[in-house]
Design a protein that fits this description.
This is Acetyl-CoA acetyltransferase. The protein is α/β, with parallel strands linked by helices and 381 residues long. The chain has 13 helices and eleven strands.
């Protein structure tokens, strides 16, 4: 795929948090699509590519065609967990370059908070794990966190700093679900979910959805908002079950990041803002290491000085992340939305100065699938 050939031109969330009674995931997707199209000045009739994934709809793009009353030329419902949406961006770019569609929408919606955990998650039977009754996904991430602590001396206090940094960003975001003050001591003393992770090391459980709109770079220049150009994409997968992960401290983000950097012609030092999947405090730490922002094993010490917080040297998860902003089951789409808004300079109090390159990194399953997208402003193409 050609660097900068396509751009994200519209982004929007649906209602977030705890949505109105009777709202369905498709309602939230449609709401997000309508708002994202308004954001860029396009109409539903312009959409001829439909991309999406959901935990509550088996054939989401087919359901959306019917719900929206449209007949797109191209569709893709690739499902890889929370990294699906970065993969959809790559697939949409390929489809637009190939002439399969001109205006692509990527969408997601979930009512996991109002309907409850059991309504949104199928039960996978694994003969090596299920007999031990793990509380998934928390148990799997706790296992990886314990290994990182054992191998590298990472501390619970260092993990807690990641939650505190996310909360500081959330306090600058009017749409964030959690805005109460949070200290490292409060993270450590919160209810233990699966050692070493307390409830404050774990993501929120919210409803929500949203959408983004993509088109060619040529068409993007004539639309309402500044385009966020797709500079590079990369994806990789390593396992399904955590018991089959070759190394609990090293994820396939190493491969997906390397591919994205190579196609963008950039490196970690060129990134102005990082939006990385923080289903748990551990994931932020792992992805900062695996995406090259610090050496493997040094993530704990790296984050401990507050550099991830507002005003810090490494602005990360600037909307408050899955830890404090929202987390409706699969979070990847919201990372892309925030990355685009940062590039446009639309983020108010939480705006990162001179932001021209943004990285959005998605994670699916239990550290299973990784997908990285690098976006840039007009100054980068």
């Amino acid at each position: 795929m050609k660097r900068g050939s396509c751009a994200i031109v519209g982004v929007a969330e649906s209602d977030l948090g705890e949505v109105a009674e009777g709202m369905s995931p498709l309602d939230l997707m449609a709401q997000g699509i309508g708002r994202a199209l308004d954001d860029c000045g396009l109409k539903l009739r312009d959409v001829d590519g439909l991309f999406g994934a959901a935990t509550q709809s088996r054939m989401v793009t087919l359901a959306l065609r019917e719900y929206l009353g449209i007949d797109p030329r191209h569709g893709d419902s690739t499902y890889l967990g929370g990294s699906s949406f970065m993969t959809h961006v790559a697939h949409a770019q390929a489809a637009i370059e190939a002439g399969l569609c001109e205006v692509a929408v990527v969408t997601y919606g979930s009512t996991q908070r109002t309907e409850g955990r059991s309504a949104t998650r199928g039960k996978d039977i694994n003969p090596y794990e299920t007999p031990f009754r793990p509380f998934l996904p928390s148990t799997a991430y706790a296992l990886a966190a314990s290994r990182h602590m054992h191998e590298f001396g990472t501390t619970r206090e260092q993990l807690a700093e990641i939650a505190v940094a996310a909360r500081k960003w959330a306090q600058l975001n009017p749409a964030a679900w959690e805005k109460k003050d949070l200290t490292i001591e409060q993270v450590l003393s919160s209810r233990m979910v699966s050692y070493p992770l307390t409830v404050r090391d774990c993501c929120l459980v919210t409803d929500g959805g949203g959408a983004l709109v993509m088109t060619s770079a040529a068409r993007a220049r004539d639309l309402r908002k500044p385009p966020a150009y797709v500079l590079g994409c990369g994806e990789s997968a390593s396992h399904t079950a955590i018991s089959n992960m070759a190394d609990l401290t090293r994820t396939a983000a190493r491969q997906s990041g390397a591919l994205a950097y190579a196609s963008a012609g950039l490196g970690p030092k060129d990134i102005d803002v990082r939006e990385v999947y923080d289903a748990f405090t551990l994931t932020t730490l792992l992805f900062l290491e695996d995406l090259g922002f610090c050496p493997k094993g040094e993530g704990g010490a790296f984050v401990s000085d507050g550099k991830l917080r507002p005003g810090g040297a490494l602005p990360t998860n600037t909307n408050g992340g899955g830890l404090s902003y929202c987390h409706p089951g699969m979070y990847g789409l919201f990372l892309l939305i925030e990355a685009v808004r940062q590039l446009r300079g639309e983020c108010g109090q939480r705006q990162v100065a001179d932001c021209n390159v943004a990285l959005a990194h998605g994670n699916g399953g239990v550290l299973s699938s990784q997908s990285t997208v690098i976006l840039g402003s007009a100054a980068t193409v």
